[in-house]
Amino acid sequence: MNKKIIFLVFFIIINLVGLNAIDSVAYPLKVKGNVDLTRNLESSALKLGDELYNGDEVETKAESYAAIQFEDKSSIVKLFPNTILNIRTEKEGEKYNKRSLLKMGELWAKVEKGTGKFEIETPTTVASVKGTNFILKVAEDGTTELLTFEGEVLFQNKITGQTEVISAGQRGMTSGDQPIIVAPFDPGEIEESQSEFINEDYGTIQEEVVPETEIEETPIEAPVEAPEVIEEEEEEEEEEEEADDSTSGPFNMGGGVGSVMLGEEIYTQIRLMPELTFGKFGLGLDIDLMIDSNGDVRKEDWDSFEDFVNKIYYLRYGERGDAFYGRLGGFKSYTLGHGLVMKDYSNMLRYPEYKQIGIQLGGKLPVAGMTAELFTANAVKNEILGGRLTIQPLGNTSIPLLSKLVFGGTIAHDRNQVKGLLDSDDDDYPDHFDDFPYDEDWHNEVDYDINEYRNIYFELFSSNTEEQFLDWFLNSPTLNDLRNPSFADFGEDDITVFGVDYELPFVQNPLFTLSHYGEAAQIDGHGMGFIFPGFYSKFLIFHMNLEYRIYQDDFMPAFFDQLYDEQRAVVYTDIDSVLTKESLLEDMTKSHGWYGALTTNILNFLFITVAYEDMYDDNDDNSRSLWGKANLDTKMIPKLSKAEIGYSQTGFDKLSEFKTPNTIVNGSLGYSLGGSTQLVGSYQERYVDLNNDGEIKGTDETITSMSIGVEFSF
Question: Are 346 and 331 in contact (CB under 8 A)?
Fold first, then answer.
């Protein structure tokens, strides 16, 4: 199996040489204040010089602004404070079709004619534009309002289907399933600060090319200016504007001070998190000092080469979906395929007590629409590995539906599950079997007390030599029984899971998406699992998956899941023995049933994801699993900057116990202290059944991780 993995890595790396770069779809012209960029569930500060890609989400915080220009120079979008815009743009020939989503807030846009479709979607409406400039805003109660300054905008209510043309000087307004109301508006309504921002000039927008015959026949009209145009002519104002932009350049510094509990000890934490962005490249560092009650820095964080490597929070180039992309660092949630092999795996489960630097590397291959991706959870140890290949064999044809058919293959491998036991000092002795778990020089009391044994030995055998003592000390069966076992004594226990899948999109448009998929997975040496049929749909405010699943004996779905690092290997104290996650497969029996997941956005205030699996075996006994996560849109609550909570439990018959070995609870809360500073508290709780009695009792079987402190960025 190792030879197969090496061959797969070699094959992908060789083919990646022929990759071609893909263009971005937009870029920021101005960033003022606190503006976030979210890409593939990872958030960072938006900065001048960044490139924006299809699917990116830009969010302006309080008293913050952003101006974005699309790559074809045809249009500019300016975001006012407390606004969220999801960029949805696809290139068709030389034109860019723009169908972005305004989730919350207010924006102004200016669009030139003849440069591709331009639509702004909100949770309840669609604004279709040709040549015009307008303001579109979504209020906290869901009311959507459109103000047209030039040209015409086609305004549609997605719920009722009603469509109205909103001409220059008119306002269109609707809420939920209510009819669209059209009325004139007074340009004087626009706030002076908004007018100033609208009329800031960052460069020339591409002008519409008019044929010569039309120039002769058609009088040229002066462009219609946005309301309340205010020119900034004073040199002091220009200098102030440049100063604002400089704070949002390619360098950003974040960090915090506070306290964190590692094990049973509380440390004062001073953390610096600088970020550097240049084009598609990004670098983030996590430099933290853990200071104990004696004022000493925790030396375990600074005594090896791996410790210095672990100061890298991330190093990235591009994003998944680009022609070439890569990322090095922490992964909060990582999935390959449709989830039967690896789903929501995290190499940050024990973060920051134990940091791992993972690597993701992938891109598009130059044949048959193929893509490839490689993953390792720890670049130093390379123990948990993953990879995926996809192919779109009919992508260059015009066959309906089948031209979009994608086949994929996924593999995940753990070279040694036993290495899941925590080894804090990296001396190859697991903490549980290490009398000195934080001292790499010692691992058992027998060797540490060698002088005491020497004194006793020579009291009994005074005529013996030092050589005879050492022979007895190192080879005595009695003393060897007292010595702790190392990882080498447990041997290696690897495991591999691989799968194949396909996906066939049926319907793809801004209002409704429906895809069908299937997947089969095999745990090497054990059973198989299947998803068929599987469906994914997106409509209104909902994203939904529905799957029928079939599992054979000795099969576990998503073997590499969020809790995998904790469950790779566990020491059961009652038998003082190590059991790997693979050992749990013998208890898995043949089953079948449904899996469903639903994500929704409630009034742009509460974002909820819930997933549930209900499986039955041949005796109609149940095995159920539940996952849930909730996030609040903190813009609606003064001073609240973050609020989220999550819970998951797998493999239960009835949800009678809140705490089980297959449960994880986490949450975080942030309070704004003003500017870009916030007070943040985080909490995580997971459980281990050390005595194997089926119950979680006592503090030893509850593993908690807490932190509270002040975070800042500038």
Answer: yes
